[in-house]
TrEMBL record:
GO molecular function annotations of the record: 2 iron, 2 sulfur cluster binding; metal ion binding; oxidoreductase activity
2Fe-2S ferredoxin-type domain segment(s): 1-76
Origin: domain of life: Bacteria
Classification lineage: Bacteria, Pseudomonadati, Pseudomonadota, Alphaproteobacteria, Sphingomonadales
Keywords associated with the record: 2Fe-2S, Iron, Iron-sulfur, Metal-binding, Oxidoreductase
Species assigned in the record: Sphingomonas ginsenosidivorax
Name the record gives this protein: (2Fe-2S)-binding protein
Length: 179
């Protein structure tokens, strides 16, 4: 049995050691924030933090990370208030949103190593692909998150994503059938 820590929780997987970490996370642990993109490690949609390194989880067999610490987008901040999450929203980085969890995880590793990265350092570290082309806003968001991490800026929390259940289904009196 394979044991490692996922989002600060010890986990034991009863899977084939050759199973890619991506599928262990998504299928066995129901952590679906880590996305399947290309399956070849090129796109970065599946990026997670493994022992302080941004790694493409589709290319990491779980048998190779026994005892490791893995952080996924779900483990970054349960309240969705990590400086990167706030900066990505404030700078309107997400469009379709598919690549965003992998980008945030790659950026979180970068900011752990360097809380004040230059544009060139960001472009070198961020090898994730985005079909929507969010790269200019991505650079500003990472720099803004760096300023927040250093205590130089406060990024206001935006509205939480989703629909208020009270607004999801309302009875409109004019549309109610009358007997």
């Amino acid at each position: 049995m394979l044991r490692f820590t996922v989002n600060n929780q010890p986990v034991e997987y009863r899977l084939d050691p050759a199973t890619p970490l991506l599928w262990a996370l998504r299928d066995a642990s129901n952590l679906t924030g880590t996305k399947y993109g290309c399956g070849t490690g090129q796109c970065g949609a599946c990026t997670v933090d493994i022992d302080g390194q941004a790694r493409r989880s589709c290319r990491v067999p779980i048998g190779t990370i026994e005892g490791a610490y893995v952080t996924t987008i779900e483990g970054l901040s349960r309240e969705r208030n990590h400086p990167l999450q706030l900066a990505f929203l404030a700078e309107a980085v997400p469009q379709c949103g598919f690549c965003i969890p992998g980008m945030i995880m790659a950026a979180s590793v970068l900011l752990k190593r360097n809380a004040d990265p230059s544009e060139a350092q960001i472009r070198e570290a961020m090898t994730n692909l985005c079909r929507c082309g969010v790269y200019p806003r991505l650079v500003e968001a990472i720099q803004r998150a760096g300023r927040a991490t250093r205590g130089e800026e406060v990024i206001p929390a935006g509205a939480r994503p989703g629909i208020d259940p009270a607004d999801a289904a309302r009875v409109v009196p004019a549309l109610v059938a009358r007997p």
